[in-house]
Amino acid sequence: MKFKSLYILAFFASMSLLTSCFDDLDTVPLSDNQLTGENVYKTAQGYKGVLAKCYSSLILTGQEGPSGNGDVPNIDEGYSGFTRALFYLQEATTDEIVLHAGSSHGTTSLLLMGWDPSTMVVSYPYYRLYMSINYCNEFLRESTDEKLKARGVYEEMKGELAYYRAEARFIRAYCYSMICDLYGSGPFVDEAMDVGTIPQQKTREEIYNYVVSEGEAVASALKVPGSNVYGRVDQAAAWFLLSRVYLNAQTWANSNQYEKAYQYAKKLIDSRAYPLASDYRHIFLADNNTCREIVWPLVQNFDKSPSHAGTNFLVKALVNGVMNNYYPLGVNNSWGNARVKTQLVDKFELTDQAFDPKDTWGDNKKDKRAQFFSIGHTKETWVAGKAFQRDFNNGYATMKWRNVNKNRTELTPGGTTYTSINYPMFRTADAYLMAAEAILRGASGPKSAALEYVNEIRDRAYLSGAYGPGVSGRITEAQLTLDFILDERARELHTESVRRTDLIRFNKFTKNYNWDWKGSDGNAGNYVGRDVNDKYKLFPIPQDEFTVNPYLKQNPDFK
Predict the structure, then answer these.
(1) Residue 408 lies in a domain
(2) Fewest C-beta in 10 Å: which of 194, 259, 391, 424?
(3) According to the model, what pLDDT value does residue 5 have?
(4) Distance between CA atoms of 365 and 54, rounded to whole angstroms?
(5) What is the pLDDT of residues 162-171, one digit of tens each?
(6) Does 20 share its domain with 164?
(7) CA 115 – CA 119 distance, rounded (Å)
(8) Contact 433/492 with Cβ under 8 angstroms?
């Protein structure tokens, strides 16, 4: 398969863009045909549309909806959606998720941890990230004061222009942070480069340094926390990004930056602009636009922004139609091809693991995060004496994501075809756990503060303490270890596409901890995990890139 090269993607980004009403970031074409070049930039609304495309490129997949005119040429449009592609690499390679579908895309190699530069699914986030980067570059290139004045839109836009540009820089910095995380090194392109220029490759450390430099710069240039239009980022999102990047600095750049990780996470928490939701389950529902915990949501609507990625994928892949016999799913169809591994289930108390048909929301469970569906499913992801089976009943389903409202009713009777759950890119609970981890790794906060951060998360999970009358899930200071933090992150953040990054940071991805099918050949009886080569801490740069960019060098041991 031949993919478009990065410099052609840069041209594509500058020549074919969507716009939208910026109130909700739902993208619709400026006209019946895609507009190009100067036509887009004749009005302030056109500029807003290009910025909207920078945002929506991370949640939508194309220019017509779920299929038909995908953004990334020659790739299955549904698989190429960024959040879905990221899920494959960040979840299906770990102790959380087993995929029973997608073998033609290479998902089996993710399960068994044996991918290579030609594995298709490994390339999908790479192309999507660089496309989003080029959308941001396009906006920045065309939104200079000089160009706006020449086009007669400067006076109309000058009040918000600095914020628009800071937001585009933030999105670009986030994308480069994920290139750094997933692939290590990669080509570097910004708005200063001429369209058509073949980009040079930067090292992982250089990309890391660029991300923190941009993050620090935009942290003061964005709007103050809580003051921007819903769906657009503000300073709190920059603080979150910086905390995450600094927390991983030891892995990415061999640099101890835990103090900065702690300070930025603490800054977000102390701002109180994005307080924890009163109920964990509310974060993942169709009316989660009312949930103040989500620092950066990617907006979805079942009617205006349909796609096979985002939360539509999360709901349909993680549930199945049988569940409709017990509670409403909120969607009128599902796939049921992703299941949770035994290691994730076992991180919860035994009494919380099974599904009770008389308690479909888990109200009677201690930990409300244990939202598993077990009826008709084996807990095991394997069948004794058989090779890996693509059987959707092997492994529990999870009901964490539900396309219903907080009052537990569907958006429409019988469910909608696509979801309206906004995708939570960043949320405050993660900042609590990052702050606690940073303290345990040497940041200046006292261990008592780390304990309080973790216990706040557990109070909310158990609906105890300030959150309700539930049984306490609090732990003692003696119980608070880095290993506990890693497990707590799984309980709190499972299926939110951070697990691989976490396991690598804790040195438990390739070695020191194993799970179902890790490093296996998939043959009968070989479901017990084993250590793998450390090269799998990175994904290879897609093989097809080397035919169009002579400056690239492949990641070590993938040649």
Answers:
(1) yes
(2) 194
(3) 35
(4) 41
(5) 999 999 999 9
(6) yes
(7) 6
(8) yes
Residue 547 has pLDDT above 50, yes or no: yes
Amino acid found at 324:
N
Q: Which residue, of 421, 451, 470, is where some domain finishes?
A: 421
Amino acid at 184: G
* Cβ neighbours, 10 Å, residue 402: 25
Q: What pLDDT, in 10s, does the model give residues 517-542?
A: 999 999 999 999 999 999 999 999 99
Q: Residue 231 falls within a domain, yes or no?
A: no
- Residue 275 inside a domain? The answer is no
**Domain total for the chain?**
3
Non-local (6+) Cβ contacts of 191 within 8 A are 136, 137, 138, 140, 141
Examine the pLDDT at 28 and tell me if it is beyond 90. Answer: no
What's this model's pTM, rounded to 2 decimal places? 0.93
Instruction: State which residues form the domain around 310.
Output: 300-421
More confident call, 304 vs 404: 404
Query: Cβ contacts of residue 75 below 8 Å, gap of 6+?
Result: 3, 120, 124, 127
Identify whether the C-beta of residue 293 lies closer than 8 Å to the C-beta of residue 372.
Answer: no
| Same domain, residue pair 10 and 50 | yes
Beta bridge partners, 339, equal 98
b/e code 154-173 from CB counts within 10 Å (16+ = b): beebeebbebbbbbbbbbbb
pLDDT at 37 (0 to 100): 65
Assess whether 65 and 97 both reside in one domain. yes
Residue 430 belongs to some domain of the structure: no
Co-location of 412 and 467 in the same domain = no
Indicate which CATH number applies to the domain containing 12. Answer: 1.25.40.390
- Torsion sign across C-alpha atoms 367, 369, 375, 376: negative
- Cβ count near 37 (within 10 Å): 11
In this structure, the answer to whether residues 397 and 441 fall within a common structural domain is no
Do 512 and 407 belong together in one domain? no
Question: Lowest-confidence range among 72-81, 250-259, 298-307, 507-516?
Answer: 72-81
